[in-house]
Write a structure and sequence with these properties.
Length: 244
């Protein structure tokens, strides 16, 4: 396997004790050594023992890294901190609650095109099958995906799914805002790149509680949707060539 297909797995957490240690161990076991470059856990100023779980694993495996925020900044900022700190060109993300299955990563990594490939395939997104969440969350997610697709036309069936694989260079080109992790497919497309989506496993949360509810997510989502819609209409990113 070429070096360019080795991946930095970025996992944002906020108070995920009881989940994150298990998830890091699973990731180390699920992603072959030929693919796995490192696992970066980004702690968003947790007040529990989650970071200690990560440091215990790091004692045994130096591919595991812990990056810590000195204040709470949100999931998107955590993803950006992890991508910025990454040592490899290919990024994979997992939600820190353990509901994403790291065993889905090898196939997703194998599917993405090499950097510079003419297909411009730059992001592989997961689509959760038999989603393990409350009925109200599943309903709200379906409604939000339909509204978003109606406005943005990004053809992404599950933009909120945390498991994604993408090229670091492309992500770092994007304008940052505090909910960008929910709009990556639309923004990758805005910048002229292609996205594909694959079915992935969905699992029950084992410990802790969700940090979101339907009401606050809906309010923020509508606000961001207006902004991303404006950005898509106003962005021009033409292909270029150099002659001579």
């Amino acid at each position: 396997m070429s070096e360019e297909k080795r991946v930095s797995v970025v996992i944002p957490i906020f108070n995920e004790a009881g989940n994150i240690g298990r998830l890091v161990e699973e990731t180390l076991a699920a992603v072959p050594d030929t693919l796995l470059g490192e696992v970066i856990v980004v702690d968003d100023f947790s007040s529990d023992s989650g970071p200690a779980e990560v440091l215990d694993i790091r004692k045994r495996d130096k591919r595991v890294r812990l990056v810590r925020h000195l204040e709470n900044a949100g999931q998107s900022a955590s993803v950006r901190s992890g991508v910025s700190a990454a040592r490899f060109d290919l990024i994979a993300t997992l939600d820190g609650d353990g509901q994403n299955d790291p065993h889905d990563l090898p196939a997703m990594i194998g599917r993405i095109a090499p950097a510079g490939d003419n297909s411009r395939l730059a992001l592989i997104g997961g689509v959760r099958q038999k989603r393990k969440d409350t009925g109200s969350k599943r309903w709200a997610s379906k409604a939000a995906n339909r509204i978003r697709d109606w406005v943005l036309h990004d053809d992404c069936p599950d933009t909120g799914c945390g498991i994604k694989v993408f090229w670091r260079e492309v992500f770092l080109k994007l304008p940052f805002f505090t909910s960008i992790h929910r709009y990556l497919p639309a923004l990758f497309q805005t910048y002229g790149y292609r996205c594909e989506y694959v079915p992935v496993n969905s699992r029950e949360r084992v410990a802790g509680v969700s940090k979101y509810n339907n009401f606050n997510r809906a309010l923020i989502g509508l606000y961001d949707l207006v902004g991303v819609s404006w950005l898509r209409r106003r962005t021009r990113h033409p292909q270029i060539r150099e002659d001579g």
